[in-house]
Write a structure and sequence with these properties.
Elements (H helix, E strand, L loop, with lengths): L10 H20 L2 H13 L6 H6 L1 H9 L10 H10 L7 H4 L4 H9 L14 H19 L3 H19 L3 H10 L1 H11 L10 H16 L10 H24 L2 H8 L11
């Protein structure tokens, strides 16, 4: 049986509790039998894989590989995943480069099973690298069963790191955020942008995200959000706004407005 994470509170208070107990909870989760079975098998067999076809053919290996990048739902999309891996990332027209969801780019880049690439699966540290991601992602997934906002917050660090590492320009990084549905939701809520913004022209969306980031946080530089303090501000605003939106639906808005007004902006420029 897999250990079920304990998150007794919601919103930012719940996040602080989760942060204080994260290390022992993650460790207990990692030691649960289903996780140990999956990670042990992966460690023992991944070095034998040298092609996209070989990885896709082994469902147990593929489950950990996809699960490490939050792509669990693609386990049965074998042709699609083989294409993502087989194309690699070197060619501009490779599938991973054309998909708006940059989790696939990170996935293909991590395994190196595409055209012109040297497989990374045989590297001595590779199994530990993927297993570490898998354990963190699956813990966040388990947290999400009781609180989806907490899952989004937990995944923010790794997602931002991947985006900064895999994009050379700030504009490219913003497009990657906008193309990653979970991370986009974190930024949309934290910045006070409506979900309907996704219906306008993509360049106008980019301008809106950058303008609001500058107004709320004092910077529109995506790499700045890898700083722990600024990232904590981002998560705090995301959780407070998300909880306020839920309260607004339940109370007609008065309690939610009070909650929002009690939260200062990181740069004292936040408007509602």
């Amino acid at each position: 049986m897999t250990f079920q994470p304990i998150v007794p509170l919601t919103g930012y208070v719940g996040w602080r509790f989760l942060q204080r107990t994260l290390e022992p909870q993650q460790e207990t989760f990692n030691k649960s039998q289903p996780i140990i079975r999956d990670t042990t098998y992966f460690r023992e067999n991944i070095a034998k894989v040298n092609s996209a076809e070989e990885l896709v053919a082994d469902r147990r290996l593929l489950s950990v590989a996809l699960g490490a990048f939050g792509l669990d739902e693609d386990i049965n999309n074998k042709f699609f995943i083989k294409k993502v891996l087989g194309d690699g990332i070197i060619d501009e027209d490779a599938l991973a480069n054309r998909l708006s969801d940059k989790r696939y780019f990170a996935f293909a880049s991590a395994f190196g099973l595409g055209k012109g690439s040297i497989p990374r699966t045989g590297l001595t540290f590779f199994a530990d690298e993927i297993v570490g991601r898998f354990e963190k992602e699956q813990f966040a997934r388990a947290v999400g069963e009781s609180n989806q906002d907490m899952r989004l917050a937990l995944n923010t660090t790794d997602k931002l790191r991947d985006i900064v590492e895999n994009n050379q320009t700030n504009t490219g990084r913003w497009f990657s955020i906008m193309g990653d549905a979970p991370l986009r939701k974190v930024f949309e809520n934290a910045l006070g942008l409506p979900a309907s913004i996704g219906t306008i022209d993509i360049d106008q969306q980019l301008e809106a995200f950058r303008d609001r980031a500058e107004a709320v946080f004092g910077t529109d530089d995506v790499s700045a959000f890898t700083d722990p303090d600024l990232q904590e501000d981002l998560i705090r605003l995301f959780l407070v706004r998300s909880e306020a939106n839920q309260l607004s639906a339940a109370t007609g808005g008065s309690v939610a407005l009070t909650l929002l007004q009690s939260v200062p902006s990181p740069v004292q420029k936040l408007t509602f």
